[in-house]
Structure prediction request, 539 residues.
Amino acid sequence: MTTATLTQLNALTGGLFLLCTFGIVAMRQVLGILKMFILQSIFLSISAFLLGYIHMSIHLFAVAALTLMVKPLLIPYLLKRMVGNEVTARREISQLVDIPSSLLIAVLLTILSYFIANHLLSNTTPIISKVNLPIGLACLLLGAYTIIVRQEAVAQTIGILTMENGAFFAGVSIAPDLPLIAEVAAAFDVLIIAIVMGLLARKIYEKVGITTVGEMNHLREVEKL
Amino acid sequence: MTNKIIFNIIQVIVVMSLSPLVKGVNDRMKEWIQSRKGPSILQPYRDIYKLFHKDEVVSEHCSWIFRITPYLVFITPIFVTLLIPVLTDYPLFFAFMGDMLGGGFILALGGFFATLAAVDTGNPYGPIGASRTRMVGFLAEPVFMIVFFTVSFVAGSTIPYIVQKAWVTPLSNFFEPSHILVMLAFIMLIIAETGRIPVDNPSGHFELAMIDESKGLEYSGRGAALMKWGGCMKFFVLLCIFLNVLVTPWGLASENNIGAVLLAVPLVLIKILAFVIVLVIIESSLAKLRLFRITEFLGAAFITSVAAMIMYFF
Prediction:
């Protein structure tokens, strides 16, 4: 396989990765968001693998394997165990901005990230970074947007994990020679985030009965009039 | 020159004669998936034949719009057929008469008159269906535009015969991310435009839930036959645009003789039937959306097409 083919495959992976990110913004149910996140992580791992093949770097292969293990398998399993049936409940998530408007905002954020990335990159940067950096940046912004808009604890957790995915997606292209220890540390960090937030969501659920953290804006329980 | 005119006419004949077959196969396969036997694949031909031999009843309260609409619905796909590559991969006689946007406008004209005719009669279900169709149409329009912009930007032209070669020369361009995303957006568009699940249920019989079907409820006899046939042809033409221009421009005749053109007929038919299988699987595995969820469906199609455009531009 030539480098050109690999670059093109990487671009295709990037496109599908972006589509999954849009899916995280657009899905109505927690289970749907989780599925989109799993798909997105798989694409991230494929991209890392392709880049590893292009750069002939063992680090990136390790990153791909680590991502494939942690994100699509371990994190959904942990979230389901920690939060219990709240994750798999087929309940619709309340959110501040309705979905069609969210999608339009998502498009604007994507265009913005492409503009920023265009200014960051010079003409001499390899074509791979030109694909990966803007998509990673867009994914970062969309993850942040998900956290702002969704009012459900589990969805917000997945928002943070999405941001992390975006940072990774950009990172593997601009810094392919990052020491392996940093990647391992990041992977464990994500795992700890998932565990802590899952536990927190479970505690909230046990205390209050819901995980719609967006609606909890009083210190004490107020009397309903 | 004469050859090209004859081939153009052959294209029209192929679209007219084979489009009910595609609908019949589609219906039959849907029944198969539901483990029923289903009607024969020739059933649409029999329906059209039967309706042509029946009396036509026209309400005395309706105007000329109601009478003229079946002819318009029937004739607009034929006009579009003259513009798009159905059998050949070189431009035919009428190819430069209009581009893809022109074809879109001609198809929209038929839809526009069908909507007006639905409002024209006193039938209460007509206007409901008409306004819903317009809603879906408004939402689908930006997607159409962005898809066409992307495609014509890539090819440097809006003539479908020129566009069709841009994505597959060289073959690796097929896997260009913008191409894949445009394909996804266009599949969603076809589903919305031809009233299929998850947007609309074409085989439903409950008037209040109808979107596309309730516009033709008032027609009988020849009018109903023309509306039905026109609907089949519109579906066929959209599939031709999708398959021959955007996805798989192979199997088309490239030589200027009658044998090659006739050989292209079964090849194109096989392509369309293969895609119908995909559509049937999509239709059978999803549930119909609630009316106001259609915005989300077409919003997803819109951002897919915009993502395709962004990925190509930068």
Notes: The two ends of chain A are 69 Å apart (CA to CA). Chain A touches chain B at residues 4-5, 8-9, 11-12, 14-16, 18-19, 22, 26, 99-100, 103-104, 106-107, 110-111, 114, 117-118, 130, 134 (CB under 8 Å). Chain A has one domain: 3-215. The mean pLDDT of chain A is 85.
